[in-house]
Amino acid sequence: MTLRRLLTSSALPVAVTAVGIVALLHFTGVQLTDLAVYAAYLLVTVAFPGVYLWRLLLRCWHTSDSSPTWFEDLTLGTIFGFGLQLPVYLIGVAIGVPLLFLVLPALTVVASLIPSGRRAWTQPTSRIDWRAAWALAVVTLYGVAWLARQVYPLRPLTQTGNHAASVDETFHQALIAELMHRVPPQFPYLLGVRLDYHWFVHAQLAATRWATHLDSVLLLRQLLPTALLVLTVLGLAAVVLRLTSRSVAAVIAPALLVAGGFYLMGPHYEAWNFTESFMSKRFVSSPSQSYGDMMALPAILLTLEVLRRGQRVPRLVWLTLTLALFALSGSKATFMPIFLCGALAAWAVQLVVKRRIDWELAALVGLFVVVSAFAQFVLFGGHTGGMSVALFHTSEAAVARQGIAPTASSTAAMTATLLVGWWLYGAGGLGLIRERRWLDPRVVWMAVSVLAGTSVAFVFFKSGLIQMWFQRSTAELVVILSAWGIACLLPNPLRLRTGLIYASIAAVTAVLAFVVSQSLTPAPAGSHFASYTELVATALTPLIAGGGYLVARAACLAIKRPQPPLAALVAFLVGLGLMQVVAFAYESATKPIHDKAPSRPLFAVGGVEAADWLAKHSRSDAVVATNVHCLRPHAPECDNRNFWVSAYTQRRIVVEGWGYTAPTNDASILGKPNAHLPVPFPERLAINDAAFERPSRQAVTRLVDTYGVKWLFVSKEYPADLPGLKSLHRVLKKAYANAHYVVFKVRT
Q1: Nearest-CA neighbor of 363 among 329, 328, 321?
Q2: Sorting pLDDT into bands at 50, 70 and 90, what band is 597?
Q3: Between the CA of residue 183 and those of 107, 155, 466, what are the distances in Å?
């Protein structure tokens, strides 16, 4: 292969991206052997069977005239592979063979040897433009580098044990442990309460642990987030490439997604609470959202294909869409309701415009209803999550968070700032309006889905800002609309000179916005919050730009001169959002990376060792009782988010904490954090604590007989009568002890 052919092939950017990711992760503390094991796991057990089945089901697309690129099949097929693996893994756990999913690559090999199955690999496939491949490599490496600098140091791999554990991390660890051993799953820290959370990602991580034996902390902190980011960036590019058939649009969409939202609060501002959309520290702390963003992409692509007018949708496409939607249903509950709203709107628009029922759209609505009902009633038990109607309470909470006086003007400014941060990178959608595509079912579906998700954030409220996840689930649709609109505005083919002009407008705008954000005075000085001035400046900047553009058009029309192109305004507005890229580059060049200092210990020294001993010396179905309940043993108000005992013992606990469960959420009170709500089962707590605080043969026997307890896990930091427990020789046997913890085994 000549040097020219090598540089213009798509293989080299793939290799450069892979090497860059390995270097970044190794720099942040990941061992090369762990990386190799995880990469092999993804390739063999996820990508190989997933890509095969994706190509097999969608073979109708692979024609000599028009066929998907290898890039589309590889990325979306790999994502599809996660959904393929999940039910097989769950069946395996249920029958006691958790590695059952390893039959999938074996079956794929067998199927590939059959002539009819071999055609899945030999179908015609298109090539991706090499320039787009290089651009996507840059976007992908930027995203991973952003995580490696901004997020991974917050909880570095060098910190382990009680200093490293966080509330949310132990929550996710507990769910992973539950799904490693037991199906159907429960909340392991509150015995008998069904797991009505978005647990598909935890099941995937449990499967990963069985196959690789990698630690859940390593998977949660770095390996999984990196894989999800890469697959989301590339999968989104594949969706937009098929939608628009424009390589430039396939690069713009993921670039806008990872660039971040626009605001003029400067680098001091902590954006992760309200204004962020996709890239934030929540990308790591909320694996269900990151996993849901990735799993939504096959469903989005197939939905757009069903909505494409002028073609008959093959049955296998419907089947693939159905499988993709069910795989998404338990990944993140926020996607299905907003997708359903968009589909209903698209159906209604067609009914009004054409005055006839579009049966394919009606079938799509029906499919969304079925999958939504499955998620709501089968996976989540019909629970609503405890959200209540509270108009614009999100804006009021955001204002209060910034320490700004709560007034009508400050609430309005915050609302406008939030909308600008969430929607500005969708400015390219103006191109769809100019092209009169507003009645296209695909545009209607995406636009109404975005409106529905955003509306939830302002209409409802729940402790913990749960309503914000609906808005965050719209980010991909926003950038798809924007990239599609920009593709309509740009000439085809796009000349290098034209592309450089608009890219320069966006780049200069980003630099100017960064300079302005640095000059605005934060309030209070040196804080990490926003001032009223910064909110107003953020909200008004796009409006001023749009007004200036309209004035310029009117002036040119009056003097009969060529009007400024709409693409110039879009480049300016999109460039505002790219300010975060400039800020990241500036910070990377001027400030060293500092690992976050060890946080306040979540539990006493020796907790992990005691819990690990219990995990190794008990059956996976053993029930444990503990005196550890509140997050802090002597806090004035109990924080019910205590999960670490179930996380590290990998066993179900009679009652540890009760945060994030349906019984707790259903008791939600507006204005009171759910973390401070009382236990939903006070009688159980009384029976449990009586055995620890007033131990007697009767108290322990009642606990054991009522809940099937086999072990007692005692922390000396919490109320317990240890001498009394040790005296019950005929009932309890002291099995393990260290400075802060004692483990008792219940005698048969």
Answers
A1: 321
A2: low
A3: 24, 31, 26
Sole residue written with tokens 């179908």: 123
> Do 9 and 48 touch, CB atoms closer than 8 A?
no
Please give the radius of gyration of the chain, using alpha carbons only, rounded to the nearest integer: 27
Report residue 202 as tokens: 């935890």
CA dihedral (16, 22, 23, 25) positive or negative: positive
3-state secondary structure at position 679: coil
Q: How far apart are CA 150 and CA 28, in angstroms?
A: 11
Helix 335-354 to helix 315-329 angle, to the nearest 10 degrees? 140
End-to-end Cα, the chain, rounded Å: 72
Phi, psi of 381 (to 5 degrees): 65, 20
Mean pLDDT of 188-202: 94
d(CA 415, CA 396): 9
pLDDT band at 717 (very low <50, low <70, confident <90, very high): very high
Measured over the CA atoms of residue 625, residue 626, residue 630 and residue 635, the dihedral's sign is positive
pLDDT at 65 over 70: no
Q: What is the pLDDT of residues 457-512, one digit of tens each?
A: 999 887 777 888 899 999 999 999 999 999 999 998 888 899 999 999 999 999 99
In whole angstroms, what is the distance from residue 609 CA to residue 628 CA?
16
Q: Scanning the structure block, which residue is given the tokens 């540089």?
A: 7
Quick: pLDDT tens for 613-662.
Answer: 999 999 999 999 999 999 988 888 999 999 999 999 999 999 999 999 98
| Tokens describing residue 316 | 């296998």
The neighbour count for residue 494, using CB atoms within 10 Å, is 14
Strand, coil or helix: 140? helix
Q: How far apart are CA 97 and CA 95, in angstroms?
A: 6
Contact (CB, 8 A) for 13 and 136: yes
What is the rounded average pLDDT for all residues in the chain? 91
The reported pLDDT for the residue numbered 524 is 61
Residues 273-298: b if buried by 16+ CB within 10 A, e if exposed: bbbbbbbbbbbbbbbbbbbbbbbbbb
Give whole-number Cα distances, 441 to 91, 119, 444, 452, in Å. 38, 33, 5, 16
Distance between CA 662 and CA 667 in Å, rounded? 9
In angstroms, the CA 548 to CA 682 distance is: 63
Where do we find the tokens 């080299």? 12
Q: Please answer whether residues 719 and 627 qualify as being in contact, where contact means their C-beta atoms are separated by less than 8 angstroms.
A: yes
- pTM, two decimals, is 0.95
Strand duo 460-461 + 652-653: pairing: unpaired
Measured distance CA(218)–CA(35) in Å, rounded: 10
Copy the structure tokens of residue 365.
């609505």
CA-to-CA distance for 209 and 272, rounded, in angstroms? 29
Burial state string for 703-737 with b = 16 or more CB within 10 A and e = fewer than 16? bbeebebbbbbbbbbbebbeebbeebeebbeebbb
